[in-house]
Design brief:
424 residues, alpha/beta, Adenylosuccinate Synthetase, Chain A, domain 1, 3 domains, ten-stranded mixed sheet, 12 helices, 20 strands, 21% strand
Amino acid sequence: MPVSLVIGSQWGDEGKGKIVDLISEDVDIVARYQGGANAGHTICWDDKEFVLHLVPSGIFRDGVTCVIGNGVVIDPVAMMDEIRMIQELGYDVDGRLLVSHNAHLIMPYHKRIEEARERALEKGAIGTTGRGIGPAYVDKYSRIGVRVVDLLDRDVLRKKLTASIEEKNAILELVYGAEKLDVEAIIDEYVEFDHLIDPYVTDTAHFLGTALQNGKRILAEGAQGALLDIDHGTYPFVTSSHPTAGGCSTGLGIPPTAIDRVIGIVKAYCTRVGNGPFVTELFDEYGEHLGRVGAEFGATTGRPRRCGWLDLVALNYSTMINGFTELAITKLDVLSGIDELKICTGYKYRGRELDRFPSEAHILEEVEPVYESFAGWEADISEVKTMAELPGEAQSYVSFIEQEIGVSASLVSTGPRRSQTIIR
């Protein structure tokens, strides 16, 4: 199995960090292929908890090389802070962390513009993390972005930054009434960053290609979730990259034919951070239970997540566009103590049933969920090790998901720690 791929099947926050950390015990390389420091992947073991934003979730496994691919946009400050945190924990990153020379950089003006735009939009705001991700991708596709390789030549960097900052200063000052940025100060800051990042920079596409030729096992890690994909998600309430399977090849430079295992991470219920349609969102005691027991707060922003019942219409859509070969169901333990559980199995729109997941936000805002009810369970399942040990109701809940999606669950998570996982 040359390349395994881990994808969030919902709106992110499904527990990808734990699953990547778990699977990375059996691979040689973990490679992140898109997104930026707007992602928060939480890893727990031995009563310790760590949140990674840019460095792949395999960094805590000895002997595993971690790659930040060309599809990621890098915040230099966030990256260096994260590297220092990992080193302070006693883990060596030298020779184990590689950064693509073609990855684009998030600049100070990207954050300033994003913050100003969100304030100006008010009710129409997307609900971004304010990390400058969207504007960085805009510059990338406008072909005026700054890449890691540009840091190698101060004159090239000054030329690119001067042109960009003049444009951005005009936008900040004239459109948003914000303060201008200092060109020289930014150049000095990023030249210093070059000295810090230089040991990690390489041609990661070549590295991964060679690794494939040599039979190395690669685990590709996506950020966010499939329903936040810029093309296939609930546009415009999406991220600015491709968390879906297709983003893996472009974000790492590996051929799609090398991917033979696609693991869809499915939270046993649904959550969403920020704005946008959410068909099964709950505003009652059940939603409160999911948020409280599930500790549903954004790992990056700290914002409370919106909570709702599991949505199989959305999950079937996600399975279709990603080609999941297996599922990893997470946070099943959070459902303990709920007397009646519900799963959305269909949508009604203006009195008629829909035969597909509509990615149009205005339609999703009006959709009514069609639910199937299930008996809940009271037992604490956090230390259960096998499916047979689960309460019958929990087994039925998992089986129903598998049957409706047509994909088996190879992993069922019953808590945040590595050990709290049923491996089938």
